[in-house]
Amino acid sequence: MLSPENRMRRSAEFGTVMRSGRRASRDALGVVYLAPRQPADSSTDTDAPAPPRVGFVVSKAVGGAVVRKRVQRRLRHVVRARLADLPNGSLLVVRAKPSAASLRQEELAVQLDSAIAAAQRPRGAAKRRRGRGGPRPEPVESAKSEADGDRRPQEGGERWTQQ
């Protein structure tokens, strides 16, 4: 069981996390993570930071009331062991999907760890494939010379700069 100071209960907190948090999803669950705010001036920080708070969303799609409560208890138990890994002041919402009812505790733990790590990963750290909408590399000055008819590469042989 989570301590009362680690529970997220207010609708406003859930709304804030769902609007502003980073999302990550796995087969059986999804998480929304909101990192703690950085204080404007750290020298005026007089009170202790709030502990991390966690909320759970288990919809009726997961199952009946007994199944939903069982899934919530299992998720709460898994999260409790990971509270020390969350930074103080952070907010986390764990949302159970219907397949969470049939998974074992260890599988839930692995998926939760993976989802939390993905949600905490800094933006831009994930490798994305460049598609149609992706940024194009900036042409170097040699591209202008190619338009003039000079197709010889520069001394290094590189036509594009690496980003």
TrEMBL record:
Biased segments, Basic residues type: 124-133
Domain of life: Bacteria
Species of provenance: Nocardiopsis metallicus
Region (Disordered), start-end ranges: 116-163
Top EC group: hydrolase
Keyword tRNA processing: yes
Gene name in the database record: rnpA
UniProt keyword Glycoprotein, yes or no: no
Pfam families listed in its UniProt record: Ribonuclease_P (PF00825)
Record's keyword terms, sorted: Endonuclease, Hydrolase, Nuclease, RNA-binding, tRNA processing
GO molecular function annotation: 3'-tRNA processing endoribonuclease activity; ribonuclease P activity; tRNA binding
Family matches, as InterPro entries: Ribosomal_Su5_D2-typ_SF (IPR020568), Ribsml_uS5_D2-typ_fold_subgr (IPR014721), RNase_P (IPR000100)
Lineage start: Bacteria, Bacillati, Actinomycetota, Actinomycetes, Streptosporangiales
Family: Belongs to the RnpA family.
Assembly description: Consists of a catalytic RNA component (M1 or rnpB) and a protein subunit.
Name of the protein in question: Ribonuclease P protein component
Gene Ontology cellular-component annotations: ribonuclease P complex
NCBIfam families: rnpA
Task performed by this protein: RNaseP catalyzes the removal of the 5'-leader sequence from pre-tRNA to produce the mature 5'-terminus. It can also cleave other RNA substrates such as 4.5S RNA. The protein component plays an auxiliary but essential role in vivo by binding to the 5'-leader sequence and broadening the substrate specificity of the ribozyme.
PANTHER family documented for this protein: RIBONUCLEASE P PROTEIN COMPONENT
The enzyme's E.C. designation: 3.1.26.5
UniProt-listed GO biological process terms: tRNA 5'-leader removal
